[in-house]
## 1
Amino acid sequence: MDLQPLLNHFFGHFGNQESRPSFYFAPGRVNLIGEHTDYNGGFVLPCALQYGTYLLIRQTEEPVIRLVSENLPYQAKIPVSESFSRIGNEWINYPLGVLEQFRQRDIAIEGMELLFSGDIPNNAGLSSSASIEMVTAYALNDLLEANLPLIDLIKLSQKAENQFVGVNCGIMDQFAVGMGERDHAIFLNCRTLENKMVPLILDGFTLVVANTNKTRGLADSKYNERVAECQLAVTCLSEVFEIGQLSEISYMQFYKIQDQIPDELIRRRARHVISENQRVLNAVSCLWNHNILEFGALMNASHESLRNNYEVTGFELDTLVAEAQQFPGVIGSRMTGAGFGGCTVSIVKTDKVDHFMETVGKSYQEKTGLKADFYVAEVSDGVREVNKSNGH
Ligand code: GLA
């Protein structure tokens, strides 16, 4: 990343070239498998991407917080004496939610200037929001000398999204953005936060992310609806099994007691979560055993369950996945993230990647009228301060 154009923009906007801002980066993430399991205390397997959010930040004498973005027009200028409140559906709510979390911990907020710049597509299921939250939290921790450990920054960023933005998300995104490690997938137990970095050795295969470019209308409210449906399933199953979250029972146990859930739709929601949890365990074994073929089959099965049981896919995601799965040289493809539009992730034979993008892109466009964007994923490190001299 070349720091100079961002610096120019920063000085162009805020002036005072005398005082240099600090420079931070937080990645986006792609989840390989384990979808809609995190808020059920289950397992996930995400990794951090090379794309993400850059932040230039500087303290000011004037007790005012100024926030601008290179990507979106909305700007804010908020006196530190004011309370923070949500502003429509603006991007600004992510950093504001994080600032509010610092304030709730009695950390004094001072005047500051922040310039954000992102290269992850917004609202595409690659965690642009967690990336903004985490880059803000990490930078504020330094600027305000708060000394919070990384895990606290992860938890407070999730809280910012739950309480300030109003999406009842789990912890996967903030965790992956915070803890990502180059060339590793993060095997995370979302109930205990125990985790292990699993080397992602794809031997001649490449991870390709594809954006359906379908607008994700009402995604947040549908997401919260799924969270509530899972809670309902827990209430029904608790009559026979004392559980607090769906991840606490195995698929075998669920199979025997599923009739405890009278509503067929709620039963399917639970079936997805509990079977997906098992698929993550199997997928992790595949990675340790270098069994990429079986890993791909699990990705396909995950998509099928997200389509039929959890109903978070839709025409565009299903079409893009079906086209990818049919392509010779693909061993697995599925939606990634919350769904309702957004991105897919596929494992593609490395020497077929260009052909894959062209062929799948063409047939997707013919069927949906939309142009997909493709990205070769490089699995990268988590949030960090960027070295000032070379921009890395
Ligand atoms: C979104 C949420 C995550 C997770 C995924 C679905 O990305 O932010 O917490 O629930 O959806 O797996």
## 2
Amino acid sequence: MKTRTKLLLGNWKMNKTLREAKAFARESVELSALAMANNVELGVAPTFLCLEAVRKTNPDIIVAAQNLHYEPKGAYTGEISIPMLKEIGISWSIIGHSERRQYNGESSLSCNRKVLAMIENDMTPVYCCGETLEEYESGITKAIVRNQIRTGLSGVAKDKASRIVVAYEPIWSIGTGVNASKEIAEEVCGFIREVLGEMFGTTVASEIRILYGGSVKPDNIKSYLSAKDIDGALVGGASLDIQSFKALLENIL
Ligand code: PEP
């Protein structure tokens, strides 16, 4: 069984101009060295406009897109394809972030097409799942998450599945400052691994990294990472400032 390398991924959402992104990338060079020395993978997901510049400024940081289209080209105004990303050296993308599900009509089914296209192209999807507050309060978190995982990752070949990263992000905790307790995150991430085991077998499931996301801050990241099935964090707000990003990293070393 392979050991799962810890992963800290910042989701910049619609933040940072090109100039700001380059400045961050320059300052992140020393953080990448620290991460590598401690066997932690460090990454950021800038806007499309900044992907190439961030990658060139810091070749040692994982640079992920925040979305992509599943078709290689065509009449899809405003979209960005996998060949376009690959040409500028990008092989990771967040898929199915709750904000895209909420504001852009994405579903687990449409995410599945993106995940399959990425796997076909040897890319790494960071597939997001998580329940709304209403679903959480109704006690149906596991049913929702199971459905998101089974639909979104359907058809992925067993021998390719270990490259997938899953992010559990309860929607009620994203950007709200109300983070899920370690116990909730631990239980749901453990459940996600069980569902992955049903789909891909327990060995492959034990190799897939599962991140927690939702109001992760330097002062709470360590507790999440101490959970057996949580292998890292997907961080929005606290990843935007280099000092805070540094503190997130330092607190999981
Ligand atoms: C996110 O955007 O994935 C996220 C978890 O945001 P925040 O850390 O700001 O809650």
